[in-house]
Write a structure and sequence with these properties.
- The chain contains 17 helices and 23 strands.
- With 508 residues, the protein is an alpha/beta fold.
- The chain folds into 2 domains: 273 residues, 2-Layer Sandwich (Nucleotidyltransferase, domain 5); 161 residues, 2-Layer Sandwich (Nucleotidyltransferase, domain 5), CATH 3.30.420.
- The longest helix has 28 residues.
- The protein is globular and about 65 Å long.
């Protein structure tokens, strides 16, 4: 059999990214198409599943316009963030927009579930209940939109809905299933105990298979809509983080990835789960491996918020110069001393995940003086996110999770040399950056494993994953940051009490 190319498609938080690679792991082409996120009320975040499929069609179309021959694509793998459920009626029509993992509307449902069934949920799902998970989100729909809930005949997850549009086959993988909080992570089956909390028949949930299983092929209709060749093999796929970890080459126990993207994640490959209420426990794409870890909710999104709120002039200047606004912001922030001259930022714009699991937390700048300029605030945002990652890393160290070698920095933020250095200085760790670290790249690699281009996951990593930038920590800066981190923690603890009091105030 002649192998030509492999296609990974990620339905991301802000858009669809497609990456086409050859059998040697070289990127042939990429394409990206944005779609909208809707915020109908404060703390809510939704997307239209139809927009995901439309963006996929446009991204593939751009590749074709650029000369890509889709008849040479051997297999397709789709990924997306976990926790994002698509509810469908008996005709498989979308009933309502999909609730995203950043959405906070199900806070009260999560609190009730934690109080009444928290230990049982944790025992089965291996994760602590919070508004991030699908279970409380679906409970919110049942309680607040009963007419919609009565229509629900099938539930899919984001990447599975898009793949269903390509193949007509409903299925999911064990990693996305774990993100629902309706799945037994050890037994690899839907949990009747957890489904009963919703009075949800398990027949409405998709079959579960391993991430690399080929579950269908591109239909004639999908071929006409997307430009992909009819009959192209399609994997069940998996979540974006799982494929980012895989695409970064983290497959052996102890290897660690640090993600600087919309959210920040620290994941460590292990031989089993680490049940802890401050951790996320997920299986790896390799059957006997896991990648438990921590998460900070507003990572690169904090820097984007700062850009959109305060940096109009930098955005205009960047457009004129053919640059990114972030490049100008980085240049200004790089001129500010380590520690931003006492200005400290807590990046809790959307509440926080690890190590607090508190949706009531808010972002804050503390220590501002007349000395501080916009550039100080920009650097403080980068340092504050790094402090949050240190908070997460210290938890992993306290738990005793083994780590080996350099950390692997991934995500869009890892492309910033300034931010890479700040993260290394704050953590006191050497870091390397994979040459390519999108989940769509990991998806293309997994597609190669599925069809036999690569003998196994290790062979795919050996063939495809190459490192580019290596960053050494400045230990003098590390010592300075340790002192400032103590203040970060102390003020977080004091401010947390005030933020908890804010919940429910009519003036907010």
């Amino acid at each position: 059999m002649k192998f030509d190319s492999l296609l990974g498609i990620d339905i991301g938080s802000g858009g669809c990214k497609a990456t086409l690679i050859d059998v040697n792991g070289n990127v042939i082409a990429t394409a990206f198409k944005e779609y909208s996120t809707y915020y109908p009320r404060p703390g809510w975040a939704e997307q239209d599943p139809g927009d995901w499929y439309k963006a996929l069609c446009q991204a593939v179309g751009d590749m074709i316009s650029g000369g890509v021959r889709t008849s040479g694509v051997v297999a397709v793998c789709i990924s997306a963030p976990t926790h994002t459920a698509v509810v469908l009626d008996k005709d498989y029509q979308v009933i309502r927009k999909a609730i995203l993992w950043t959405d906070q509307r199900s806070t009260s449902q999560a609190e009730r579930l934690a109080e009444d069934y928290g230990e049982d949920i944790f025992r089965v799902s291996l994760n602590h209940v919070s508004p991030v998970w699908t279970l409380p989100q679906l409970m919110w729909i049942r309680e607040n939109e009963p007419d919609a809930w009565r229509k629900v005949s099938a539930i899919m997850f984001a990447k599975d809905y898009v793949r269903w549009r390509l193949t007509g086959i409903s299925a999911t993988d064990w990693i996305d299933a774990m993100g629902s909080m309706l799945f037994d992570g050890r037994e690899l089956t839907w949990s009747s105990e957890l489904c009963q909390l919703l009075e949800l028949p398990m027949s409405k949930l998709p079959p579960v298979v391993e991430p690399s299983r080929i579950v269908g092929t591109v239909t004639k209709r999908a071929a006409e809509e997307t430009g992909l060749a009819e009959g192209t093999k399609v994997l069940v796929g998996t979540t974006d983080t799982a494929l980012e970890v895989f695409g970064a080459g983290a497959i052996d126990p102890g290897q660690c990835t640090v993600k600087l993207a919309t959210a920040g994640r620290i994941c460590i490959v292990t031989n089993g789960p680490y049940p802890h209420k401050q951790l996320f426990n997920y299986r790896h794409v390799i059957h006997d491996r896991w990648y438990p870890g921590t998460g900070t909710k507003s990572c690169a999104s904090s820097y984007r918020w700062f850009r959109d709120t305060f940096c109009d002039s930098e955005t205009v200047a960047a457009e004129s110069a053919g640059l990114s606004a972030y490049e100008i912001m980085d240049d200004q922030a790089a001129r500010i001393p380590v520690g931003s001259e006492g200005l400290v930022f807590h990046p809790y714009l959307l509440g926080e995940l690890s190590p607090y699991n508190n949706p009531s937390l808010r972002a804050s700048f503390i220590g501002a003086t007349m000395r501080h300029s916009k550039a100080h605030f920009a650097r403080a945002v980068l340092e504050g996110v790094a402090f949050s990652l240190r908070d997460c890393m210290l938890l992993l160290e306290e738990i005793g999770m083994p780590q080996t070698g350099d950390i692997r920095l991934i995500g869009g933020g890892a492309r910033s040399s300034l931010w890479r250095q700040i993260v290394c200085d704050v953590l006191g760790r050497r870091a390397v950056e994979p040459r390519v670290h999108e989940s769509s790249f990991g998806g293309a690699m997994l597609a190669g494993v599925a069809v036999g281009v690569f003998e196994d996951a290790a062979a795919a990593v050996s063939q495809c994953v190459k490192m580019s930038n290596a960053t050494e920590p400045n230990m003098k800066n590390h010592d300075s940051y340790k002192a400032l981190f103590d203040i970060y923690k102390e003020t977080q603890e004091m401010l947390q009490r005030s933020y908890n009091k804010m919940v429910g105030l009519t003036c907010i």
